[in-house]
Write a structure and sequence with these properties.
- The chain is of the alpha+beta class.
- It has 2 domains: about 220 residues, no CATH class; about 300 residues, Beta-galactosidase, Chain A, domain 5.
- About 35% of the residues lie in helices and about 25% in strands.
- The protein has 15 helices and 21 strands.
Length: about 550
């Protein structure tokens, strides 16, 4: 690898690592819409995960949650009736206190290989919740009627509906219906409010997802970094900006869906019969020490504001998506949910999409993603072989020109312009191109960025094992063995391709620099780069052997 190639690689990698700050500095990151005041702000929820200590009640516009409870307290309600529903995908718990879901567990995914992934769990709140009148009314504080009992749905069975009804005794009713399909990561949700005037609601109501999922990954610090309020308005919106530990955003405008995301999972509410009028995000962020690590814990709440008349009835329908952030699954909904996959910049995204399409195809034949990654590295090497061959031949010619180049440098050391002209004439006469060493990087760098994104955020690789100590390709090598192998292969590769003796120190420094850089990268990415290095070494040996054979043949013919 020559000096220009090394510089190009370093620049590309640094751009990848610091793109967020660069885009922010030059104004390339699209700012969130300007916050506008709203009459009825949403509630803020507090996580009740067993791994976290109890938290103080959040403050909403200067009022505590207890002060907002102007009607009935939870303690005054009759005992809750729960309905337990099992499907091949879900373990769900409904409650009459609030008339909704207070537990959502994904059965196909695991938290640290011990039980399903929890997307919602709370004793005193339901999702989605219904609030109105500046949060003076919250369905969480009322008991609903429901005649359903526990049931289980099997694959292929017809969807089943559960209906909750609240009657205020003055001619007003709130009816919440949930339709569970055993074959989908989605629940259809219908809500009707009858006799609006008897409730005294003002202008709109908020549909709130106010239960924050607990962390699901071993690296809790990294996991919390992905916790955001998300939504689709005119563009995809993600919100996680805190001021003094608090976030309060009210973005008016058409809202197609809103919800919460973690690193690999999401819970969103999709409007079906009409769009919402605003996206509302609230939350808190605080530092805690968990298992000896300082973590910024986030508690979030997302809501959609829906307009309502001053009297009469209103009916709205939604789809609740609660499941994995899986590109193919999300794309089917046709409302931009696939934007949750975070597949990189506009230039990189097509490469990311191609990778997450191709690798699972290979995996269906060879069920080991580590081997799939190595096969993918081989495919890329075959595709760019013409460029690699051109690079190797050019660098060999440059190496042969070193004595002549040294003479020119000595002859024209006081005339840089003449030196440059003579050097170019020398390159042209020998058929060597000093820039040819960068050619294989052109297709490689977008692939590198795409692979970095795919292995770090795509759920297919969550928990995907390779062999021996590599049990999860989406996280770093726990013993740093792969980065060490990568450093060794890179050292030999550079030693074989170095053309300028002045760059001798780079043979030692660059592998160490890249080893330090890659040591915290996903193991899948390091495996790809290591495999590619080994293939490049073999390729260089093969091409040089061919060159030597051709040279010997020419010498024999001349003799």
């Amino acid at each position: 690898m020559d000096k220009k190639t090394i510089i190009a690689v370093v620049i590309c990698v640094l751009v990848l690592l610091f793109w967020g700050r660069i885009s922010e500095f030059f104004g390339l990151t699209k700012p969130a819409p300007v916050q506008q005041p709203k009459t009825a702000p949403t509630e803020v929820d507090t996580v009740k995960a067993e791994s976290l200590p109890p938290q103080p009640p959040p403050i909403v516009e200067g009022k505590t949650e207890e002060q907002l409870d102007t009607a009935v307290t939870v303690e005054a309600l009759p005992p809750a009736k729960t309905i337990h529903v099992l499907t091949p995908l879900y373990d769900l718990m409904f409650t009459t206190h609030g008339g909704g879901l207070n537990q959502i567990i994904l059965l196909k995914y695991y938290y640290l290989k011990d039980g399903g992934v929890i997307l919602a769990e709370s004793e005193r709140k339901v999702v989605p919740n219904f609030t109105a009148s500046d949060n003076a009314f919250s369905a969480n504080k009322f008991a609903f009627d429901c005649d359903a009992t526990d049931f289980e749905l099997y694959q292929g069975e017809e969807p089943r509906k559960i209906t909750f009804t609240y009657d205020n005794g003055q001619g007003g009713r709130i009816i919440k219906s949930y339709t569970i399909d055993p074959d989908r990561y989605a629940i259809d949700f219908d809500m009707t409010v009858e006799g609006i005037e008897t409730f005294g609601f003002e202008r709109d109501y908020d549909l709130v997802w106010g239960i924050t999922p607990p962390p699901t990954e071993k690296n809790i610090k990294d996991d919390y970094g992905y916790f955001k309020v998300v939504g689709m308005m005119d563009d995809f919106v993600k919100l996680a900006k805190f001021d003094n530990g608090r976030m309060s955003e009210n973005i008016p405008g058409r809202t197609v869906w809103a919800g919460l995301r973690t690193k690999y999972f999401a819970a969103v509410m999709i409007a079906k019969n009409r769009e919402g009028d605003a996206l509302i995000a609230k939350g808190t962020e605080r530092k805690e020490t968990i298992d000896g690590t300082s973590v910024k814990v986030r508690d979030l709440s997302a809501a959609m504001a829906m307009s309502i008349p001053s009297s009469g009835n209103v009916s709205d329908t939604f789809t609740i998506y609660a499941g994995p952030i899986h590109y193919k699954t999300l794309k089917k909904y046709g409302v931009g949910l696939e934007e949750l996959t975070s597949l990189g910049w506009v230039i990189i995204k097509p490469f990311s999409i191609a990778i997450i399409w191709l690798l699972p195809k290979i995996y269906s034949v060879i069920p080991n993603y580590g081997i799939v990654v190595l096969i993918f590295a081989l495919l890329i090497k075959i595709i760019i072989y013409p460029l690699s061959r051109k690079q190797t031949i050019a660098m060999t010619r440059l190496k042969d020109l070193q004595p002549k180049m040294k003479k020119l440098q000595e002859r024209y050391k006081s005339d840089p312009q003449r030196l440059n002209k003579e050097m170019m004439k020398l390159y042209k006469g020998a058929g060597a191109n000093p820039l040819s060493g960068c050619l294989p990087l052109l297709p490689q760098m977008p692939l590198f960025f795409a692979l970095f994104t795919v292995f770090k955020t795509t759920i297919e690789f969550r928990g995907a094992s390779f062999a021996f100590w590599i049990t999860d390709l989406s996280v770093r090598d726990p013993y740093f063995i792969l980065p060490i192998i990568m450093v060794v292969t890179m050292f030999f590769q550079q030693k074989m391709t170095m053309t300028d003796p002045k760059n001798k120190m780079m043979i030692y420094l660059m592998p160490l620099f890249f080893g330090w850089l890659f040591m915290n990268f996903p193991a899948g990415l390091v495996l790809y780069w290591t495999g590619f290095n080994i293939l490049s070494l073999l390729e260089t040996v093969f091409i040089r052997k061919k060159q030597m054979e051709q040279t010997e043949t020419v010498v024999e013919e001349q003799a």
